[in-house]
Amino acid sequence: MNNTPPRPLRWRHAGLLAALLLALGGCASVGPDYRPLAPQAPAEWHAAHITGDAGQHSLERWWQQFGDAQLVALIEQSFRANPDLLAARASLRASRALERAALADRDPGLTASASSGASKRGGAAVNESWVAGFDADWEIDLFGGIRRGIEAAQADSAAAAASLADAHASLAAEVALDYITLRTAQARLQIAQRNLASQEETLQITDWRAQAGLASSVDVEQSRTNTEQTRAQIPSLRTSIASAANRLSVLTGEAPGRLQETLATGRLPDMPAAIAVGIPADVLRQRPDVRAAERTLAAEVARTGVAEADRYPSFRLSGTLALESVAFSALGNGASVLRSITAGISGVLFDGGRLQAQVDRQDAVREKSLQNYRGTVLGALEDVENALTAVDNTGRRREALAAASAAARNANLLAADRYRSGLIDFATVLETQRSLLTTEDSLASAEGDRLTALVQLYKALGGGWSAADASDESNGNPS
Known about the structure:
With 479 residues, this protein is α+β, with helices and mostly antiparallel strands.
C-alpha cells in the first residue's frame, strides 16, 4: 500500500489544462440557436385608406400635425413626468444592469484578503503573523450556458427598450384621446347652451302668446319640456369635461384639478392634410409591441440553452497567491509565498429527471412566446385595418351630419318665422328645435370621433416614438 501523499498539481500542468478547457469552451453552445422570424404581412391594406404620405418624422411626432399648441405641450409634459413612463424607464435601467451582470459572469472573479494576528504561549514568547493575498475563480463555459445567459439578458434589454417605446406611443395616444374627449364635450356644451338660450326665448314668447289668448297652455308646457330636457344635458357634459381634465392632469404628472383653468377654453384640433400610412411590412417594423414580443421570444430561446447546459458537468479553475509573514519575538522573523491552482469538475449523477423537466418547461415557455409573437403581429395588422376603416367612415359620417346640421338650422329659422306669421302650429317649431339640437350635437361628436379614429390609426401604425428617443433613454437621458 502506497502511503505517499498525492503530489500537488504543477503550474505547468494546470496551465495546459486551463488552455484546453478554454479552447473547448469556445465550441458550439447547447440548445437551439435563435433565428429572427420574418412575419408574413400582406402587400397592402384591405380597408379603404387615406392617400398621401407625410413622412416618417410626421409619424414619430404625429401630434404636431394637429395645429394645437396645448396638445403638443401636454404630450411633451407627459413624457417628462408620467409615473407609468418613469416606471418603464426604471425597468429598462434594471434590465441593462442585469445584462452587465450576465456579461460579467464570463470573466474570472478576483478577490483580495488580508489578516493579522498575535498569539502568546506561556509568559514569554509573542508570535505575530499576517497574511495578504488574492483568490481567483473562473467557470469555464464549456457547454455555452453562460453565453446563452448573455444572449437572454441582451434580448431582455432589447425587449425592455421596445416596451418603453410602446409606453411612449400609448401615452401620447392616451393624452390625445383624452384631450379630444375634453374639447368635444366643451363643443357639445356650447351647442347645448346656445340651444337652451334659444329655447328659453321661445318659451317666454309662447307664455306671452298664451296670456294674450294666441296660444294654448299645452304649447307652453311643451315648450317648457323641450327647454328643461336641453338644460338636463348640461350637468353631464360638465362632468365629462371635468373628468377629462383631471385625467389629463394625472397623465402629465399633476394632481387632479390642476389643469381645469388652463384647459377651460379651446377648440378641437385640426384634421391633418396628409397621413403617413405606409405598407403592412413597414408597420410591423415600426410597432414597438411587435419588437418587444420578438425580443422576448429570442430571450426564451436562449434560456432553453441555459436549461440544457445545466444538465452537463461544470468546470472551474481557482487559484490563490498569498504572502504570509510570521514574527517570533524570541526566534526572529519568517516569510513565505503561498500559491496554488486547482481545477474541478462537478455534475449531477441522478436527480430524478428534475433537470430534464426544467428543459421541457423552458421549451414550453419558448413555444408560448412564439405564439404570443404571432398573435401580436396579427393584432397589429388588425388594429391598422380597423383604424383605417374608422377614419374613412367617421369622415363620411361627419360630412353627412354637416349637411344635416345646415338643413336643421334653416328649418328652425323658417319654422320660427312661419309660426310668428300664424302659418304653422307650435308642434312644428318644437320639432325643428329638437332636430337642430340633435344634429348639431351629433356633428360635434362626429368631429371628435373622426379625430379619435385618426389618433387610434397613428397608434396602430406604431407612431409616437423614434429610435433616437429609445437610444437616449437607454443611456439614461430621458426625452
